[in-house]
Amino acid sequence: MATRHLARSIILQSLYEWDFYNQKEDLTKILERNMVEFGPGIDEPEFVWNLMKNIISHKKEIDNIITKAAPEWPIDQISIVDRNVLRIGLFELLFADRNEVPPKVAINEAIEVAKNYGGPNSGKFINGVLGTVYREIGEPGKDDHAPVKEEGGEEKPENKKVKTKTIKK
User: Fold this and answer.
1) Which residues in 68-104 are b (16+ Cβ under 10 Å) and which e?
2) What is the C-alpha separation between 46 and 79, in angstroms, rounded?
3) What string of pLDDT tens digits covers the 169 residues of the chain?
4) Would you say residue 11 lies in a domain?
5) What is the CATH number of the domain that holds 108?
6) 159 lies in some domain
7) Domains in the chain: how many in total?
């Protein structure tokens, strides 16, 4: 299992336990225990801690987005697994550095975690909600493709893009 996929699985297990006990348990202790049990020697422990910290700091906002994107499913009626997979996926889709976690990767990872830990329809549900949000934010990265290489392994000049930044006034 790839390190970041394992990290997301550990985060899901920790969020699940925390959510199951009505968010009254110490999430730090839960995550520490799960890191020792399921991720000894994990390459990027800081990825796990940062992702968890950021999901929790954006939880209220993420939960509001879930409510809007899945209006037929009140958040407390969404299974604990699916609810927390959505929290992970939506944080990565909306708030994470897109150079580190491109939108398509955030969506695909969430779907895979849902398939591994959720019910038979979890992958479809997660895909539907994240796909709706992805379209709402304008489908960033939709047209990004792997660069075409020339025979010598060099990237063709027409594939190179100039990155620009917009400065808000």
Assistant:
1) ebbeebeeeebbbbbbbbbbbbbbbbbbbebeebbbe
2) 28
3) 578 999 999 999 999 999 999 999 999 999 999 999 999 989 889 999 999 999 999 999 999 999 999 999 999 999 999 999 999 999 999 999 989 999 999 999 999 999 999 999 999 999 999 999 999 888 776 766 544 444 444 544 444 443 333 334 3
4) yes
5) 1.10.940.10
6) no
7) 1
